[in-house]
Specification:
single chain; 739 residues; alpha+beta; five-stranded antiparallel β-sheet; four-stranded antiparallel β-sheet; 16 helices
C-alpha cells in the first residue's frame, strides 16, 4: 500500500524499486515475454516495461478501484476486476475485449487457467468459471467470505481459493464436452465419463462386448440409446478426446484408450510423474504434454513413438490447441521464441520433417489437415493481421485465402477447409485448387451469411456436412453446408469418376463442376476434366485439356499440366529429363522466354540428331514482325548473322520430332480420347437432327455416337486401371519431377 513496485531475486533479496505510483497497488502480473509488468493502481491499469527506453501504457480500466488483475501467457489476454463489481478482458494494447454486467459483490480475485481457455473469478462467498470470451460457465456459492486469491493446478482442472474467513475452497471443472462426428463424450463427475453415440446407425442398443443394454421400466430403445455408456475410473479425469474411431481418457495416473462402438478397453498404460496439460489426437496417434516429461507422441496401441525435442516445445505449459497441431505423420507448432516461425516434426522419429516454415509476420494459429499422405499434407495458419493462409508442407508456397478471419478448421476426414470471415462462413471444398488452377478458387468455395451467430463466434469442429459454431455467449449451434461437394470429394478420393460425373449432372451446381474440374486436373484425369470444363463453359480450358490429351508422350502431358499450374521451370525440367528437348524449346517459345529457348537450342546443338537454333530464331523473327519491332537482343543479333531461316526445313524438323515422340510413346497417331469422341460425335448428331437430313455418312456417325450410359461404362473401364495406378498417389504434382 506504499505505492512501490519492487523487484526481488529468487532468494528474497531486493534488486530494485521498479516504480512508485503514490497510490496503493493491489495486484500485478508479468507479461508473457517477461519484459514488462502489469499493475493496477486506483482505477487504472499500467504496463511498465523493464527497459527504461520503452514507453509505458496506461489506461482507465474501471469506474472504481481495481483490486485484481491477471495476464495469461498463452492467449496474451488481460483480465481485471474491481470495486465496481465488474470484470473486464483486455488485449495487450489496452483495448477492451469484453466488459461484464455488475455482479452482486466486488470482484476480489482472478486467475487464468494455464491454457488460457477459461479463468476463475472470486467474490464474496462466490466462485465463478468464465470463458476467455467473457461469458460465465458456472457460478457457485461457498462459505469462505471474500476470496482473495485463486490458483490453478498444472492441468487446469482444479482451482483453490483462499477466503477471508480463513477457509480454503477447492473446485473441480466438470462438464467438459468433446465431439467427433456422432460420438459425444462428457466429463460427468470427478472419475466418470459419459459417452453417447447420436447416430441412427447405433439403434441396436448394444453395450460393451456386444451385449444388449438393459432397458429401464417404461424406457424405449431410443431413450436407452441416448443414455449412452458410463465409464468409471479410479483416478480423477484430467483430459478427454475422441477422434478417428478412438476415445482417449487421461487421468492423474494412467491413460486409457477405447475403441469407439463397443467402447472396450483397447489399451492402458501408466503415466508416471507430471500432470498432463495437453491432449491432441489424430489418426492412429495422439500427443500428451506435461511439464515433467515434455511432449510425447503415442500410437493408439499405447506404444511410445517419440519424444520430440525442439526449442519451441521446451515449455509444454504454454502449448494449447491452436499453437500446436497434430496429424498422423507431422507435428506443427508455433515457435514461441520466434512467432513468425512454424516448426515441423516427424511423428515417427521426432526429427525435423522439413525446414521450419517462416512467415512474414507473427503466426497466432496453425492447423494441419487430416486427409492424404505426408507429401500432400497442407497447413492453414492465421497471422496477427487475421489473414488466413494455406500452404503445403512439401515445398511451401503460402496462398492467402481470406482476411479478417475469426477462426478456421479442417474437416475431420476430408481435405476441406472452413473459416469465419467478415461475418460469413466460407468453405473451400478443394483447397489444393490454389496449386492447380487459381481461376477456379472462387468457384470451388461456398459462402454463407454468419451474422446470425453474432460477433466473436468461432468454429469448433467440422464433421460430415455440418460445422459447429460457438457464439460469444457460449451457445453452440450447427451450421449446415451442402453435402454434395463433400460426397464428390469422397468419390474422387476413391477414384469413382463415373459416380462423380453422375452426381454433378444430378445436382447441376457450378461448385460441383468446378470441384470436379480441379480434382480431375490435380489427379491427371484429363477426360473427366474435359467434361467438367465443358459444363462450366470454360472453352479456353477445355481447348487446353484437349491439347494435352493429344500429346502422345506421358512426359509431355505431365509437362503441360505443370505449365497449366503456372510452373514453367518444373515443366521444362520434366521435358529435359525425358530428352524431349524440342518440346522444351517450344514450351519456352510459347511463354515468350526467348533467351531460355535459345540457350536450350544452343546447348544441345550437335548433341541431338536435329538442331533447333534456326527454329528459335525463326519464331523470334515472326514474333517481332507481328508487332513491327526490330531485334535489339545482342544474342539473337549474333545468331541471326550465322543462321539462315528456311521455314520448310523448320516444318520438316517439327514433323520429325513429332514422329519420334509418337513412336517412343507406343500410341497410335489416330488414337483420341473417349471423351473427345463423345463430344465430337454428339455435336455431329445434333447437326444432323437440326438439318433434318444429310448424307448417310453423317447419319451413321450420329447413330454410332455413344450414349451417356455407354460413355460412363467406358469411363468406368478407364478408371479401374487408373485407380490401381493412383493408389496412394498424392494430389501434389511435385512427384512429376522424379523421373
Amino acid at each position: 500500500e506504499d505505492g512501490f513496485v519492487k523487484k526481488w531475486s529468487k532468494t528474497g533479496n531486493l534488486q530494485s524499486k521498479f516504480c512508485h505510483t503514490g497510490r496503493a497497488v493491489y495486484s500485478l502480473a508479468w507479461s508473457p515475454n517477461g519484459q514488462s509488468i502489469l499493475y493496477c493502481s486506483e482505477k487504472f491499469l499500467t504496463i511498465k516495461p523493464l527497459s527504461p527506453s520503452m514507453k509505458e501504457v496506461k489506461w482507465k480500466a474501471h469506474e472504481a478501484i481495481v483490486l485484481c488483475v491477471d495476464w495469461n501467457p498463452t492467449n496474451d489476454l488481460i483480465v481485471s476486476g474491481g470495486e465496481d463489481c465488474c470484470y473486464k478482458i483486455w488485449d495487450s494494447f489496452g483495448r477492451q475485449v469484453y466488459a461484464s454486467a455488475p455482479l452482486e459483490f466486488t470482484v476480489t480475485s482472478l486467475a487464468w487457467t494455464p491454457n488460457g481457455d477459461e479463468f476463475a473469478l472470486g467474490s464474496f462467498n462466490r466462485i465463478m468459471l468464465c470463458d476467455r470470451h467473457g461469458w460465465a460457465h458456472s457460478s457457485h456459492h461457498v462459505d469462505t467470505g471474500s476470496i482473495f486469491s485463486l490458483s490453478w493446478t498444472e492441468d487446469g482442472t482444479q482451482v483453490a481459493g483462499a477466503g477471508a474467513s480463513g477457509a480454503v475452497c477447492f473446485a473441480q471443472k466438470l462438464g467438459q464436452e468433446v465431439q467427433w462426428e456422432s460420438l459425444q463424450a462428457t466429463v460427468k463427475d470427478l472419475r466418470q465419463v459419459h459417452v453417447t453415440d447420436l447416430s441412427a446407425a447405433a439403434a441396436n442398443i448394444k453395450g460393451p462386448g456386444g451385449d444388449m443394454k438393459a432397458l429401464s421400466d417404461g424406457e424405449s430403445p431410443s431413450e436407452a440409446h441416448l443414455r449412452g455408456e458410463e465409464l468409471e475410473f479410479s483416478d480423477r479425469v484430467v483430459k478427454v478426446s475422441v477422434s478417428h474411431g478412438f476415445l482417449i481418457v487421461v487421468t492423474q495416473k494412467a491413460c486409457y484408450v477405447y475403441k469407439c462402438g463397443t467402447f472396450n478397453l483397447h489399451h492402458k498404460f501408466e503415466l508416471g510423474a507430471g500432470a498432463v496439460t495437453l491432449l491432441l489426437q489424430a489418426k492412429d496417434v495422439f500427443l500428451l504434454a506435461s511439464n515433467v516429461k515434455g511432449v510425447q507422441i503415442f500410437s493408439t496401441d499405447g506404444q511410445l513413438r517419440c519424444t520430440p525435442r525442439a526449442p519451441g516445445l521446451a515449455h509444454p505449459r504454454f502449448l494449447k490447441e491452436g499453437n500446436i497441431s497434430l496429424a498422423s505423420d507431422v507435428l506443427a507448432y508455433i515457435n514461441r521464441s520466434s512467432p513468425m516461425e512454424v516448426g515441423l516434426l516427424d511423428t515417427e522419429s521426432g526429427k525435423p520433417f522439413s525446414e521450419p516454415y517462416k512467415h512474414s509476420i507473427n503466426v497466432v494459429s496453425v492447423a494441419l489437415n487430416h486427409d492424404g499422405m505426408a507429401n500432400s499434407r497442407k497447413m492453414s495458419l492465421i497471422d496477427s493481421n487475421r489473414d488466413l493462409y494455406v500452404t503445403r508442407l512439401h515445398r511451401p508456397k503460402p496462398v492467402k485465402l481470406a482476411t479478417m478471419v475469426e477462426s478456421a478448421v479442417w474437416h475431420s476426414r476430408h481435405d476441406i477447409l472452413a473459416c469465419i470471415s467478415h461475418q460469413r462462413l466460407v468453405v473451400w471444398y478443394y483447397p489444393h485448387v490454389v496449386y492447380v488452377d487459381m481461376d477456379l478458387l472462387q468457384k470451388t468455395q461456398l459462402s454463407i451469411d454468419a451474422s446470425a451467430y453474432g460477433k466473436q463466434c468461432e468454429l469448433v469442429s467440422f464433421h460430415g456436412s455440418s460445422c459447429t459454431v460457438q457464439k460469444a455467449n457460449g451457445a453452440r449451434v450447427s451450421a449446415p453446408v451442402s453435402p454434395f461437394p463433400i460426397t464428390l470429394v469422397r468419390y474422387a478420393a476413391r477414384n469413382k469418376w463415373p459416380q462423380c460425373t453422375r452426381l454433378c449432372r444430378f445436382a447441376k451446381k457450378t461448385v460441383l463442376w468446378a470441384c470436379l474440374a480441379a480434382v480431375a486436373m490435380g489427379r491427371r484425369q484429363l477426360e473427366i476434366a474435359a467434361v467438367a470444363f465443358a459444363a462450366l463453359d470454360e472453352v479456353d480450358k477445355l481447348d487446353c485439356v484437349q491439347n494435352i490429351i493429344s500429346i502422345p508422350s506421358s512426359e509431355g502431358q505431365r509437362a503441360e499440366l505443370l505449365l497449366y499450374q503456372r510452373r514453367p521451370d518444373a515443366a521444362e525440367q520434366v521435358l529435359v529429363s525425358a530428352n524431349l528437348i524440342y518440346r522444351a524449346i517450344m514450351l519456352n517459345i510459347r511463354i515468350f522466354r526467348w533467351r531460355r529457348a535459345l540457350e536450350l537450342a544452343s546447348n544441345y546443338h550437335g548433341k541431338m540428331p536435329i538442331s533447333h537454333v534456326d527454329t528459335v530464331v525463326g519464331y523470334r523473327q515472326k514474333h517481332l514482325a507481328a508487332f513491327a519491332r526490330k531485334e535489339t537482343d545482342p544474342r539473337f543479333l549474333q545468331i541471326m548473322s550465322k543462321v539462315k531461316i528456311d521455314w520448310n526445313a523448320i516444318k520438316n524438323k517439327e514433323a520429325q520430332e513429332n514422329a519420334i515422340e509418337l513412336k517412343s510413346s507406343n500410341r497410335k497417331g489416330s488414337e483420341n480420347s473417349v471423351i473427345l469422341k463423345v463430344i465430337v460425335d454428339t455435336r455431329e448428331g445434333k447437326g444432323t437432327r437440326a438439318s433434318g437430313g444429310g448424307s448417310s455418312t453423317t447419319s451413321t456417325q450420329a447413330k454410332s455416337a455413344p450414349s451417356g450410359s455407354d460413355m460412363e461404362g467406358k469411363l468406368q473401364q478407364q478408371s479401374e486401371p487408373a485407380a490401381q495406378q493412383d493408389v496412394g498417389h498424392a494430389f501434389d504434382q511435385d512427384d512429376d519431377l522424379e523421373m
